[in-house]
Amino acid sequence: MNRRTMIGALGFGILALAATTGFAQSARNCAPRDVIVERLAEKYGEARQSVGLGANNSMVEVFAANETGTWTITVTMANGLTCLVASGQNYETLAEALPAKGSDA
Fold first, then answer.
1. Cα-based distances in Å from 86 to 23, 71, 100
2. What is the spatial distance between Cα 11 and Cα 85, in angstroms, rounded to a whole number?
3. What is the spatial distance between Cα 97 and Cα 105, in angstroms, rounded to a whole number?
4. Phi, psi of 96 (to 5 degrees)
């Protein structure tokens, strides 16, 4: 399994768990979206790499820094509150083709 798929699976697994617990986050992990985006850019050099819709109309975003390899997954709820749900190192951007039909890969 490639890293991008693993990161995506990890992120969406966390989101599924968070959705079942009502996004119970401590105050230090959540803030208005503009504050989170600014901090990720200034402190870690991270920019948005991908975006998708999650449960309850939430927006799931992956931020990463190509130079340092740090990455962060955030979830923004409809009310504008953004929570950090995962972060790590060694981010890679991949462009892989889907396996051929009938392939067990």
1. 13, 8, 31
2. 8
3. 12
4. -105, 145
Query: Is residue 41 within a helix (H) or strand (E), and if so which, with residue range?
Result: helix 33-44
Q: Each residue of 28-82: pLDDT tens digit?
A: 799 999 999 999 999 999 999 999 999 889 999 999 999 999 999 999 999 999 9
Long-range contacts of 65-69 (CB under 8 A, 24+ apart): 65/91, 66/91, 66/93, 68/44
Alpha carbon 84 to its chain centroid, in Å, reads 8
Q: Can you say whether the dihedral through the CA atoms of 34, 38, 44, 47 is positive or negative?
A: positive
pLDDT the model gives residue 24: 47
